[in-house]
Amino acid sequence: MNKTLLLAAASVIALSAGCAHAAGRPVPSFVGRSNAFRILKGGKYLYNQNSHDNGVAVNSQNFTGGSSTTYNDQGADDFVVPSGKTWTVTEVDITGQYYNGSGPSTSESVMFYKDKNDMPARPLAKGTFENLDGGSGPDFALKLPGKGVQLKPGTYWVSVISNMGFYPSGLWGWEMNNKQHGNEAMWRNPPGGFGVCPTWGTLENCIGYSGDLMFTLRGTSTDK
After folding, report:
1. Separation between Cα atoms, residue 40 and residue 72, nearest integer Å
2. How far, in Å, CA of 218 to CA of 138, rounded?
3. What single string gives the DSSP state of each residue in 153-207?
4. 163 beta partners
5. Are 140 and 93 in contact (CB under 8 A)?
6. What confidence tens digit (pLDDT) does each residue in 8-39 have?
């Protein structure tokens, strides 16, 4: 699917345009729109790109139950641990948006990936955290259990997924910003329900919107 068609598809299924199935029953959409600008603040952080909200929310959701599981999808964005430092990430803060429903999310999952060729590679050992409670949302303060995840210098990717059924709770989207940091954010829909990007691709190639995703990493940094 070329960029022009993707832009048209994204426009059709954006929240402002609705997302009705041909048979009249709503189906999930991978893009929502929001006029909200709610950024979690406070405390020290290791890394922060929770700013410059562009009003587009990208679906990143595990659909719990029913036929909607074919739309299970996932966003991810990269960050760099500087040379000579070791980070211990204990919290991930996310700016998000509910659309086609008001939520709330049942729980959230956070996954950290190694970088390979400027995209997520294999998940980090001890870097997957499931059944987290980040609050009622749509913004999440996700405290990682135990000691969190320890990261040596290098490039990594973080992914946040809302676990939530489409009926009747709707969709959760990860807010985009209009200032790119490092590599462009990635997205995938492995079951193929949306018909694009069963494997990792950039937001621009997958959904027709370029940019990054809004998040903050909190924790501690030590000299290597």
Report:
1. 26
2. 19
3. SEEEEEEEEEE--STTT-EEEEEEESS--SSPPEEE-TT-TTSS-SS-EEHHHHH
4. 62, 107
5. yes
6. 233 322 332 233 222 233 444 545 444 444 44
> Which pair of tokens denotes residue 206?
């997958």
Cβ-contact 174, 60 below 8 angstroms: yes
pLDDT digits (tens, 9 = 90+) for 165-213: 998 899 999 999 988 899 999 999 999 999 999 999 999 999 888 889 9
**Alpha-carbon gap, residue 19 to 99, rounded angstroms:** 11
Residue type, 108: E
Contacts of 129 (CB under 8 A, 6+ apart): 109, 110, 111, 142, 144, 145, 149
Residue 85: Cβ within 10 Å count? 15
